[in-house]
Every structure is written in structure tokens, then in C-alpha cells.
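cron nightly-structures :: item 1 of 1
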Amino acid sequence: MANLRGHLAETGAAVGIPAAGKEDAIRRLVGLLGNDAAIADADALVEAVLEREFLSPTGVGEGCALPHAHSNAVAELRIAVATLATGVDFGGPDGKPARLVVLMVGPESSAGLHLKLLAKLARLLHDPSFRAKALAAPDGKALANLFLSRDT
């Protein structure tokens, strides 16, 4: 099974970040990837995720969203996760704004791994107990470690 370890760093997670809307939330999540050597162009990553979001919203329901995209602006698959200070509309099927958002970006060559990790993340986000723990995480390190603890 695909593992999150190696793709999600403790520094790639944050809690309670403010976001004025979907684009702002995506920009802030890409920002969590910081100075990662795999990121060649953060602005191009934001644009790729927004283009993908335009094609089909990535809200998965229950206050969660999984924005993602393929882009040559990243050399290796990377994941960032955050809880938002207030919910943002990611077009979830239940109409609930997202407060727990997981961003995944990777090069075209990572398509197989990308799909496996999307499925894994979607399963986690649909688990009510996991969602509650994620939303209650006191800091980014605890949030990242919660996700990483599910690598089995």
C-alpha cells in the first residue's frame, strides 16, 4: 500500500490557518511546502491546483477537501495538510465548508502513486474518528503525525 511517509513532512502541516477563500487556502497550503527542494515553482503549483479545482471541485464532504494536481513545477509527490480557522467552500457534495484540507501535488510521472494516495487520504477523511482527531490537533506536528500514524 502507498505510504504518506516521505511525502508529508511535519513542516507541511498547520492548524487554524486563516483563509479568505479557496484560492487563499490553496496558496497557504502550497506555502506549507516551503523551501522543499522538490518544488521548482510554487506559483505554477497554485495555478495547476486551481485549474484542477475549476474542472471538478475537490470537496469530499463532512468538512473536508482534497485539492490535488499534477505539475512539472514539482519533482516529487508532496502533501500538505491544514485545518482552517473558518470553513471554505470546496464544493463538497453535502454543501459543508471544508475545515480540514489536504493538498497533494506531484509530477505527471507519479500518476499511479497519486491515485493510490488519493484513495488512502479519502478513506481517512471519511472516518469520523480520524476527522475529529485531526480537527482537534493542537499543532501542525501533531496533525502531521496523526496522518503518518495511519501508514500501515
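cron nightly-structures :: done
Residues 8-148 form a domain with the Mannitol-specific EII; Chain A fold (CATH 3.40.930.10).
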